[in-house]
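Hello,

I think I submitted the guanosine-5'-triphosphate job twice by accident. Can you confirm which output corresponds to this input? Input:
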Amino acid sequence: MRGRIQKALSGFYYVNTGEALLTCRARGKFRREGISPLVGDWVEVDALDNGEGVLNAVEPRRNAFERPSVANIDQLVIIASEAIPQTDPFLIDRVAAIAELKHCGVIILLNKCDLDRADVLYDIYAQVGYPILRVSAETGEGMEQLVSLISGKLSAFTGNSGVGKSSILNALDPTFHLQVGEVSTALGRGRHTTRHVEMYHLQCGAEVVDSPGFSSFDTDELNMELKEQLPYTFTEFREYLDDCQFIGCSHTKEKGCAVLEAVRSGKIPKSRHESYLRLYEELKPLESWNTVKRKK
Ligand SMILES: Nc1nc2c(ncn2[C@@H]2O[C@H](COP(=O)(O)OP(=O)(O)OP(=O)(O)O)[C@@H](O)[C@H]2O)c(=O)[nH]1
Ligand SMILES: [Mg+2]
Ligand SMILES: [Zn+2]
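Support: Only one job matched these inputs. Its output is below.
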């Protein structure tokens, strides 16, 4: 029968079939073929006795992410803060670039606004043009507007550990009691309180995936496609890309580069271009082993 993976934990997949939540193991072929079923996947399962099942097949995906590990989502909600922990804009830009590559919506939520209004981040992303909202899980500020942005959709909350992803879910739905963790003031970061990926159905009609926060990234999602599309994944660069003097301009240091000119004149936020340069450098090594054609 058909169902959707609602939760993944310790090698088990909890599949919602509409009638039951089956605890499933995946068939060995998934591991052999290098496919990881993800929360949000539509799957085919065989029901066994006592609420267990076997996961047989994963339906084609609309999109899939490694961090957070989810599939078929409508939008990524990137949660950030300028209180403790502070969010490095590079982390936002990196996640947003991958979301753009996969044609997935992006929303920026600035949490802990009871402590800090996050003016710097607000100005950057308002200028980029992403939907952006100041919220506070503590006081409830912004929750009504947030509901209107997420209802009727499947969203994945993502952001650095301790930024308040689980707290916002608790604030959105009074029936939720998700575990939240203290932030280490000495280290200025969260303690990785949420340890698994799970989809929640909210009373307001939204579906949201909560996931472990990140503190750094590995290189899994940095691939050739991202390298080739990088300038386009920075949405506010797009209108300048045809005006560079050189075709094939990398927008890093060239003469007559329209993107660099827009950065100089303040039309593109400087921090966004700095993130672009950092990603450009990270992606650079991919070229040598991936695009050189072998002579036959
Ligand atoms: N003052 C204030 N504190 C908040 C707010 N939101 C969350 N916190 C606190 O921040 C800490 C971390 O919150 P969590 O919800 O556990 O953060 P998380 O993003 O889910 O963290 P991980 O699960 O580790 O990724 C907790 O002590 C919360 O009480 C807020 O809007 N204002
Ligand atoms: Mg959490
Ligand atoms: Zn250029």
